[in-house]
Amino acid sequence: MSLDSVVQVPTEETVQEYVDIFKNTDLKTALIAAGGLAGGLLLVRLVLKLVEKGLNRTSVPQTMHTMLRTMLRILLDLVVVLTVANYIGIPVTSFVALLGLFGLAVSLALQGVLSNLAGGFIILATHPFETGHFIEHDGITGTVQEIRMMHTRLATPDGKMIYIPNSSISSGRVINYSEAGKRRVDLTVSASYDSPPARVREAVMIAISRVEGILPDPAPVVALEKYGDSAIEYSVLVWSDGEDFITVKRALNEALYAAFADHGVEMTYPHLNVHMR
Description:
The protein has about 280 residues and is α+β, with helices and mostly antiparallel strands. Helices cover about 50% and strands about 20% of the residues.
């Protein structure tokens, strides 16, 4: 199916007809059209100012303001121009159809760009994370440095800057470690069968008391998890502020080693006992 069969493309003769319409327009109609055009464009500017004031009163991020204003201005200006053209007798049906086809062609050509743009709108509107939050997406962890319309920039703990397309973030799973304000540190330690569980718990609690940054609420938990081949495994669960997570985890590991040594609790490793008869 050709383009001519879908929409009437303005030909040279059609353009000449439009020119003749302009020439044959009487002064009164021309003045009304000019006044309508000027008034319509002025009204568009007033509407945009009202929209800007409304946006400032909402939680819409400033990043979206300029883009929303630009899109709305183009749309309203186009409506005003087409309305005036229709008033003086210029048929606008073919122009509207051409604009639709042009928009379709652009959307197909820029499908990836538009999907990232839509993802940016979704992120800024739903606020799954903010600048400064520590997040994880698709196995990548880092601190959010900037949220742009096309991508989100993360700073990883090892100093890398990673740019993730917004379409991937908006359609995938995002773990926000900062939103709740605190994180749980999960550690697993092993102790010899020769060390009673009560002594192990006592040593772990002493280690916890030596670490700064561990929150008292929720209270720390020390639980016997399972009996292994060479040792008994214990879970140690404590809470800290999100920004202190790494520091607390490392400090607790060191404190556990020292407390076990002070209380005679042996941290065993996989081994095999052979009994000779």
